[in-house]
Amino acid sequence: MKQGRAPYPPSHHFMNLTEKKLSFEAVFKRIITFMQQDPAANYRLMVGTDSQVYRSHTLFVTGIVIQRKGKGAWGCVLPTIFPRKYMNLHEKISMETSLTEQVAYLFDEKKKEQLIDIILPHLYHGSSLTMEGHIDVGLEKRSLSRFLAGEMMSRIKASGWEPVVKPEAFVASGYANRYTKTPEKFSI
Fold it and tell me: Which helix H or strand E contains 30, and what residues bound it?
């Protein structure tokens, strides 16, 4: 991203390294296809957001990852640019959590049922699906964000997703983080 003026309003398209301008419906179809390739597997559907403050704006990147445990993953990101600097830690983490919640809410009950229907015939043979909201906060004593963890975890839990914090929250602190720190590399 150039250090000049940030584009606004933000794009509402998901993307990854090979695909650009994906609608949420296209993302959901890719998740369905990925799960249908091995319906008896164990899956983790994860959503998480990271951010980076630049000179004139803040870039938030929300990642969606569907992981087939031990057998690969597929993911994409949704960049959101706000034309101001988020300098207050609570405000920044709260916005990251809000954007994670917004994407998680796109998986409405009908979509959740579609995902469950894929693994349901294989449930007694060990298949599973967990839905996790990854939060970019840590619980360690040295973490500045540890005081925010309880509040953010409660919000994710209230949205029906399992809250996950660092170091396990790799969708926020790893996957989305790659896009926030070097956005020019990914055409954001």
Answer: helix 24-36
